């Protein structure tokens, strides 16, 4: 790499916007310039760095060097906004713009407790959030690519440039309605019945049900699947007998006690350890959000 002592902040922001929106044309509309100007800024930055920063495909894909600069641009923008807010904190709030924090979160945390943490931070700061819903096995990649500043993830190893805080363990129970259980598991829960009984999954990235089948049978089976990418509808589909699936233990305790739901393998309850990863930067806003996320998570999950 060339000897680089200073980078053009306008070009950095242009790169970040282009990566976020996926095309030069979309970035141009957002920045109120021409697509040619977007291309020229990024090309000048590549010349300055001495490396290719983008793969010119649709959507645009950053190179490893590009990812580093996207993170830098997003971090710089956050710190600039916080500095401005601090300078005008005694002025009329109406003149202070909102800071936006992009965060990647798994569906169960988003549905269960995460919004409480966001709301608590918003009572003290002019901040809004862009929450990206993603499976816990994939949120760390969003963080690595610079698409978000923080993420709830199942990955304990820190993404480069990030800090990791353990949140706790979310315990699940594999359940079905009594009628579904009687129809599909009259001969017991085993390889033959698990291969045929329909399951409900959130989406194709949701591997919880298939992982459970593999642990119980020690085989890779391919049962029929209904995909419902909504926590509410996923939950309801299991409760109306469309298939069996894994629900958070805390959500099904009462129904199991009443006998409305039946546990497929009593006492065999898989756990998913979740972590909060966020960029290491001197942001008081990210620090406060981290505190609230930890508090909310530990009220909901096992330690």
UniProtKB/TrEMBL annotation:
Gene3D superfamilies: 3.40.190.290, Winged helix-like DNA-binding domain superfamily/Winged helix DNA-binding domain. Keywords: Activator, DNA-binding, Transcription, Transcription regulation. The keyword Secreted does not apply. It comes from the Bacteria. Residues 7-63 form the HTH lysR-type domain. NCBIfam families: argP, PRK03635.1, PRK13348.1. Belongs to the LysR transcriptional regulatory family. This is LysR family transcriptional regulator ArgP. It comes from Nocardioides potassii.
């Amino acid at each position: 790499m060339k000897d680089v002592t200073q980078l053009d902040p306008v070009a950095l922001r242009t790169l970040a916007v282009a990566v976020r929106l996926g095309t030069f044309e979309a970035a141009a509309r957002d920045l109120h310039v021409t697509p040619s100007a977007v291309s020229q800024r990024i090309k000048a930055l590549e010349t300055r760095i001495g490396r290719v920063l983008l793969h010119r495909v649709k959507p645009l894909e950053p190179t490893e060097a590009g990812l580093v600069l996207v993170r830098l641009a997003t971090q710089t923008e956050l710190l600039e906004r916080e500095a401005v807010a601090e300078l005008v904190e005694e002025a009329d709030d109406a003149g202070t713009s909102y800071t936006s924090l992009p965060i990647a979160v798994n569906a169960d945390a988003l549905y269960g407790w995460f919004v409480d943490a966001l709301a608590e931070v918003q009572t003290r700061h002019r901040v809004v959030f862009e929450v990206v819903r993603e499976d816990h096995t994939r949120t760390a990649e969003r963080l690595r690519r610079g698409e978000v500043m923080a993420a709830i993830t199942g990955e304990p190893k820190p993404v480069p440039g990030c800090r990791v805080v353990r949140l706790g363990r979310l315990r699940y129970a594999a359940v079905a309605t009594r009628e579904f259980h009687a129809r599909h598991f009259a001969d017991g829960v085993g390889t033959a019945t698990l291969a045929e009984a329909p399951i409900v999954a959130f989406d194709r990235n949701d591997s919880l049900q298939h992982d459970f089948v593999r642990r119980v049978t020690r085989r890779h089976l391919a049962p029929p699947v209904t995909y419902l990418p909504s926590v509410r509808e996923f939950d309801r589909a299991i409760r109306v007998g469309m298939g069996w699936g894994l629900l958070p233990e805390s959500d099904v305790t009462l129904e199991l006690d009443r006998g409305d739901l039946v546990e497929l393998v009593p006492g065999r309850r898989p756990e998913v350890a979740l972590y909060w990863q966020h960029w290491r930067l001197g942001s008081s806003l990210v620090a406060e959000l981290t505190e609230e996320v930890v508090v909310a998570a530990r009220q909901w999950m096992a330690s």
